[in-house]
Amino acid sequence: MFNYRVVAIVKRELKEKLLSKSFIISTLLIPLFIFGIIIVQGVVMQFKGDKYTILEIISESPALSIELESAFLKDKAIKESKYSITYKSMSRAQADKYVEGKNSELIDGKIEGIVFVPETAFKDKGIEYYSKTPQAFAVTSKISGPVNACLMDLFFKDKPIADEELKYARSNVSVKTYKVSVEKKVEEAGIGNLILAYLFSFLLYFSLIMLGSQTMQSVIDEKNSRIVEILLSSVHSRELLTGKILGVAITGVFQMAIWLLPAFMLISTTWFALPPQLSLDVSPWLLLYFLFNYFVGMITFIGLFAMVGAIFDNAQDAQSGMWPIMLAIMIPFFITFSMANNPNNPLANAASLLPLASIIIMPAKMTITGVAAWKVILSVLINLATVAAVFALAGKIYRVGILRTGTKPKWSDVVKWLQYKY
Amino acid sequence: MNALEVVNLTKTFGAIVAVDNASFEVPEGCIFGLIGRNGAGKTTTIRIMMGIYLPDGGEIKLRGSGIGQEFKNRSGYLPEERGLYKRMKVMDTLLYFAEIKGKTGKEIERRAEYYLKRFDLFDRRLSKIEDLSKGNQQKIQFIITVLHDPEFVVLDEPFSGMDPINTDILKEMILEMKSRGKVIIFSTHLMDFAEKLCDQIAMIDHGKIILQGSLKDIKSKYAHQNVSLEYSGDISFLESTPIIDKISDFGNSKGIRVKKPEDIQSLLKLLVDHNVAITKFNANEISLHEIFVELAGGDAGASIEGKASHV
Asked: Is the minimum CB–CB distance between A10 and chain B shorter than 8 Å?
């Protein structure tokens, strides 16, 4: 399969891709874009929009009202968000009527919400919140802290408990995380690996889709310009497909190597020091594995994209063939995010050994947590088998499709192509 | 000795039989024309030859043994619909197509330069293909076809979409390749080209070979009892004349078939007697067009161009 013809095709693809402006631009821009997305996501998630919220807090005892007022005045989050709160005290029956009377103001948004702290709260800590949008977590989360503190203060006030003990009871558990692995001693773990895993996934996702759709377009162009007929008079369609895919895959790996260079420097040299919570606990081998895995993934997905390009005449029609491949890239990409909560969740475990999905999930999984060697080897074997299967399928469809023009073929036609003797 | 033998070739696409049990031979050193109307199966036959399609049945033999990559390497192919990489430079394009034929190095570069100079394109060698005119892009395609010095030159409808200058360049190249002992195979629906260039032909219709052999033999076989006539005046009286078998109108000339060979003399006399001013009376002459119409039936005439304006 590898002969001077394939080499010539690979060389042409490399020359066209590596020396193009778009290669240089995308190599620089994609990492910026990914960081941009992460930053924008962070900023958007921070944005709560609950500034100047107007609240009324009603309690059944005047003593509690005073306590609440002082607690809310001291609360940092409430102060920062500039809440304006009025405090009242009245009985349950009165409060019900009061809330009813304030109905229109609540609906108009003149008052964001009314908090009612009943006497029973001293037994079950249950309080009530009336609002047009009671699901506004930004508001309710700010209320519960100070209310809880007041309830506790009043509850323990007359009980013989020292302040120290009370302080201990109030404090939360703080979890320090340590990563245990086979080859190393127990180590304190930062979030560096998690960030690296996200970075891996993002880079895989973007470059597979970007280079994939580029390849698809170039196949459509070759088909439309009919250059493919001259090519096929010299080379076999399988050689053409192989050369094309290898050319793109090598370009992709080269680009990925450039992107990973900073990470490689971080872990293999002491030139740069990271703060301990960002420290990376990966070996250079992981990066090499990642590059290898990326190469295999490239060949797989580029093969599929090229196949779709060969089926259709133009980019619009090709969209309908592209979405299954996009899903095969996107779903695993989202599964990698589920690993942030639990890297060993059953979905991620299963998907890390699934054809196509494994390519995207396994590297992220290996970065976050230890994966048994046999599982890694199995996933590599599965990926290689997938490449072989994709190649057989894509080769056949490519051969028929590449010379076919005219009406947009139906999927049933494409299935028939598999039986054609071409 | 036959350079190529096509034996019982069959190719179907779903329900359509594109090539139907076709057999013909291409002798060494000849210009071979595969002739037929559009959709007759010419391109499919040629694509099978080039290994682009696999046949459903039958085979093609290259000097007695099976055709394959070796034939691809030793032939230059110019398809009907021709494309190039638009953003590639002229010289890079030429060297790339030679490279996939297995030809690299200084010798090929020299040949490329020679052809570029010959076609006045040497100063454009570093231009991108997309910056060339359509006519110049066609010239690049000619060069690609012959740059690796192929033994076989395969041209599918080579004259379609070509201006008179490029038509002449291509004809010149075909004749030059022939003089160097190469085999030229081309398909066309333009009978005049075939008639002027070919030594050997095969006629294909509805996927079947309906006629094949050397052009000379075929013409002499079909030409007796046939007259090609150019004149001014009225010859409508001939239609009711018993010696006349058939009259075909080709615009500038008429093809007249008489019932017996000796009737040709009577025909000439009749024309003179009726004061028809004869400018050309060519006995035992028949055009390929007439042969094709006769063999492929009346409807074939409409889809075959007897004349090309710029021959």
From this structure: no
Q: Which of B27, B58, B31, B30 is nearest to B44 (CA)?
A: B58
pTM for the structure as a whole: 0.78
CB of A12 within 8 Å of any CB in chain B?
A: yes
- Of B73, B172, B160, B155, which is closest to residue B115 (Cα–Cα)? B172
Q: Which two tokens stand for residue B197?
A: 């260039």
Q: What are phi and psi of B210, to 5 degrees?
A: -100, -15
At residue A371's C-alpha, the angle toward residues A367 and A377, to 5°, is 110
Q: How many CA atoms lie within 13 A of A109 on its CB side?
A: 4
Cα dist from A179 to A168, A290, B297, whole Å? 28, 21, 86
Name the residue facing B77 among A12, A233, A403 (closest C-beta): A233
Report the distance separating Cα A114 and Cα B138, nearest Å: 81
Count of CB atoms situated within 10 Å of the CB of B201: 28
- Which tokens belong to A331? 């779903």
Q: Across the interface, do A225 and B86 touch by the CB < 8 Å criterion?
A: yes
**Which residues in chain B are closer than 8 Å to A232, comparing Cβ atoms?**
50-52
- A231 in contact with chain B, both atoms CB, cutoff 8 A: yes
Give per-residue pLDDT as tens, A362-418.
988 888 887 888 999 999 999 999 999 999 999 889 988 888 877 788 888 888 888
Q: Which DSSP category does B158 fall into? A: T
Neighbouring CB atoms inside 10 A of A162's CB total: 8
By C-alpha distance, which of A395, A386, A403, A396 is closest to A417?
Answer: A396
* Main-chain dihedrals φ then ψ at residue A129, nearest 5 degrees: -135, 120
ipTM above 0.85, yes or no: no
Q: Which of A8, A16, A422 sits opposite B100 (nearest CB)?
A: A8
Maximum distance among all Cα pairs of chain A, rounded to whole angstroms: 96
**How near does any CA of chain B get to the CA of A408, in Å?**
16
Contacts of B14 in chain A (CB under 8 A): 416
Of B72, B83, B154, the CB nearest to A225: B83
